[in-house]
Design a protein that fits this description.
- The protein folds into four domains: 4-149, Alpha-D-Glucose-1,6-Bisphosphate, subunit A, domain 3 (Alpha-D-Glucose-1,6-Bisphosphate, Chain A, domain 3), CATH 3.40.120; 159-251, Alpha-D-Glucose-1,6-Bisphosphate, Chain A, domain 3 (3-Layer(aba) Sandwich), CATH 3.40.120.10; 254-359, Alpha-D-Glucose-1,6-Bisphosphate, subunit A, domain 3 (Alpha-D-Glucose-1,6-Bisphosphate, Chain A, domain 3, 3-Layer(aba) Sandwich), CATH 3.40.120.10; 365-446, Alpha-D-phosphohexomutase, C-terminal domain (TATA-Binding Protein, 2-Layer Sandwich), CATH 3.30.310.
- It has 14 helices and 22 strands.
- By secondary structure, the protein is of the alpha/beta class.
- Helix content is 37%, strand content 22%.
- It has helices spanning 22-38, 54-67, 80-89, 122-134, 150-160, 182-188, 218-226, 254-268, 282-290, 302-312, 336-349, 354-359, 376-391, 432-446; strands spanning 12-15, 43-48, 71-77, 94-98, 107-114, 144-146, 168-172, 192-196, 231-235, 242-246, 251-252, 273-277, 294-298, 316-318, 324-326, 333-334, 365-366, 370-373, 395-397, 402-405, 411-416, 422-429.
- The radius of gyration is 21 Å and the shape is globular.
- α1 (22-38) runs parallel beside α2 (54-67), α1 packs across α4 (122-134) and α8 packs parallel to α9.
Length: 456
């Protein structure tokens, strides 16, 4: 029996040993191979992160793909962005990376794409579930090759990014798979690199590789100041997200990173669209407009933004979670390592330090992403009911949950997480008092649901 909740909005993910086992991944691999075969494909790349469970799970997944008659190129331990790169660059028919991403060590999963690294849709992931449950698989004997995309990836990024001066950069991989690649690549583009927690260790002994959580970058903040570095960068477990620390040891939210990247892009491509998720700051919207670009607000989720970029031919995108998406001379995918190289290039070109670049961006008061635990089976219903109610009282953007626009220019967001059993909330306004008032409105509405645990 397969737990249906492991088939999520844009990947398959769950607890290892209960929901996620080699037998489950054999079935998921066969279902994915069947999907590829029925679309006319015959060859895919498969990689893995460095979690202790990933090697066994990858072996089972690969066996499933091959049993469905699809050839596999095993690319070893790689960041997810390198799997995307290999799929698109080598013109394969698809790709999959076994990874638990930023989740705690007891979780694992798989991210899957079509040719060109186009993500699977939510409907396609549910179709995989039905194939796996029914055993409706293609049959064959797929081959197996082993090939590393490292050199091709390094060559490509080195052509895209050319910092104007040498920066000292502290790299914190959180003992994730980025440590195998990011320090070497940053040295290749001309950085003086100080490594922190870059030893590969799938137990993540120092901190969880999730730079969105402030407590996970405390070591990096201290090391940047101690090393008198120009910048600090941190990656999540599979390196498709990035966090940045300036030379003063200050952490900056990813939507502000996108402002700097958007200014850089718009200097070369005036009038272009920039896409971002509904959790992003109003400062981002205003800054894109002020620099001659077109802001496009869209659904949270890396697969949603990648599809929007392709549909609307958008060259740059980003999420508050730290996903940054690049389609200018690239493949329209999220890549934390490439994002860090691009930020390094922006900082290296400036005559002032990173802290002043960020200080020049208009800052509003904003909460971090707040999480309100809510059962998976209830979270979408709660948000749907809440959105209906709030739209009767306030102007509300409902492309993904409810982004409620309050009088005075502030906003509050409540949406269902696509990956975990909780609601996501965020608030932004000019003052803490305005944020507190908006919180009261949203929290009071949520109190009707006794199974929702409100954040502190």
């Amino acid at each position: 029996m397969l737990n249906p909740h492991i088939f999520r909005a844009y990947d398959v993910r769950g607890l290892v040993g209960t929901d996620i086992t080699p037998d489950v991944f054999l079935q998921v691999g066969a279902a994915y191979g069947t999907l590829v075969r029925r679309k006319g494909g015959r060859r895919v790349a498969v990689g893995q992160d460095n979690r202790l469970s990933s090697t066994e799970l990858k072996a089972a997944f690969v066996n499933g793909v091959r049993v469905a008659g699809v050839d596999v190129v095993d690319i070893g331990q790689v960041p997810t962005p390198m799997l995307y790169f290999a799929t698109a660059h080598w013109k394969l028919d698809g790709g999959a990376n076994i990874t638990g991403s930023h989740n705690p060590v007891e979780y694992n999963g798989v991210k899957m794409v079509h040719a060109g690294a186009l993500p699977l849709t939510e409907d396609e992931i549910q179709h995989l579930r039905k194939l796996a449950e029914s055993g409706d698989f293609e049959r064959g004997e797929g081959g197996l090759d082993r090939l590393s995309p490292r050199d091709d990836y390094f060559d490509t990024v080195s052509r895209l990014v050319r910092p104007a001066r040498r920066l000292r950069v502290v790299v914190d991989a959180g003992n994730g798979v980025a440590g195998l690649y990011a320090p070497a690549l940053l040295r290749r583009i001309g950085c003086d690199v100080v490594e922190l927690h870059c030893e590969s260790d799938g137990r993540f002994p120092n901190h969880l590789p999730d730079p969105e959580d402030e407590k996970n970058v405390v070591d990096l903040q201290a090391k940047v100041v101690e090393a008198r570095a120009d910048l600090g960068v941190a990656y999540d477990g599979d390196a498709d997200r990035v966090g940045v620390i300036d030379e003063r040891g200050e952490r900056h939210e990813a939507d502000l990173l996108l402002i700097l990247l958007a200014r850089d892009l718009l200097a070369r491509h005036p009038g272009e669209k920039i896409v971002f998720d509904v959790k992003s700051s109003q400062s981002l919207v205003a800054d894109i407009e002020q620099h001659g670009g077109v802001p496009v607000m869209w659904k949270t989720g890396h697969s949603h933004l990648k599809r929007k970029m392709r549909e609307d031919r958008i060259l740059l995108g980003g999420e508050v979670s730290g996903h940054m998406f690049f389609a200018e001379n690239y493949y329209g995918v999220d890549d934390g390592i490439l994002a860090s190289c691009k930020i390094i290039e922006v900082v290296a070109r400036a005559a002032e330090p990173a802290s002043r670049l960020f200080a020049a961006v208009p800052h509003l008061r904003a909460t971090p992403e707040l999480k309100a635990p809510c059962p998976d089976g209830e979270k979408f219903r709660v948000v749907e009911e809440l959105t209906r109610e709030l739209k009767q009282r306030y102007e509300t953007i409902d492309i993904d949950g409810a982004r409620v626009l309050f009088p005075g220019g502030g906003w509050g967001l409540v949406r269902a997480s696509n990956t975990n059993p909780y609601l996501t909330l965020r608030f932004e306004a000019r003052t803490d008092a305005e944020i507190a008032a908006m919180k009261r409105v949203i929290y009071d509405a949520l109190r009707r649901y006794p199974f929702v645990t409100l954040p502190d």
